[in-house]
Amino acid sequence: xxxxxxxxxxxxxxxxxLGYDGFPLAGTPAKAQAEDVxxxxxxxxxxxxxxxxxxxCTKCRLSSTRTHTVPGEGSCNAGLMFIGEAPGYDEDxxxxxxxxxxxxxxxxxxxAMGMQREDVFIANVIKCRPPENRDPSDxxxxxxxxxxxxxxxxxxxxxxxxxxxxxxxxxxGLHTTVKISELRGNFFHYxxxxxxxxxxxxxxxxxxxxxxxxxxxxxxxxxxxxxxxxESRNKK
Length: 236
Ligand code: SF4
Prior knowledge:
Blueprint: H1 4-17, H2 29-34, H3 39-55, E1 73-74, E2 80-84, H4 89-94, H5 101-112, E3 121-124, H6 138-155, E4 159-163, H7 165-172, H8 180-183, E5 188-190, E6 193-198, H9 201-206, H10 211-225
Parallel strand pairs: 2-3, 2-4, 4-6
Antiparallel strand pairs: 1-3, 5-6
The structure holds iron/sulfur cluster.
């Protein structure tokens, strides 16, 4: 986990890139300064503030077992967000979302859609790894999900793809017993944003035949984004 000092140094570097010589003086530090920068910088700054808050967060028991926090990454201007459940071993080691085997599959899906990871925003509902990859508890979700909701409010994507049951039920406020297989393939709404539930890449690693269903879902997402579906990748 980054130390507080390391985080502050990184934050100062970021402010320097924006043209500031030091810390904002008073009040709400980054937000007050954001009035002087363009919208892109303002969003980036807000996402940086969330990342710094997550890195220091001890709101739930997962803070005591994590190696790194995994706040999420990608473009603050993303039209598309992918939201998973929680970091696994590889994500906890690297502090980045979806970097293990399931992450490679998600990257393949994004590439097959004609985009790069940097074009979208990838995050999880839970920002620290639950031990042994157990399901996150209700209280952990309720403590951690405000970070994700703030990220969505800042980015305001056109479409959110929820990967698996926990992210879907958290975003849509559904009971946790719903089945993703009954929801996928249909758009739902969160604050006016279209939400497409689909299978988690980790599930697809165990159920290859359902990759076709996910690709069908992604074609609907591409249509909603006004982007063509690459024909050559139809078998993904
Ligand atoms: S899981 Fe979320 S709420 Fe819990 S310590 Fe990590 S960042 Fe904080």
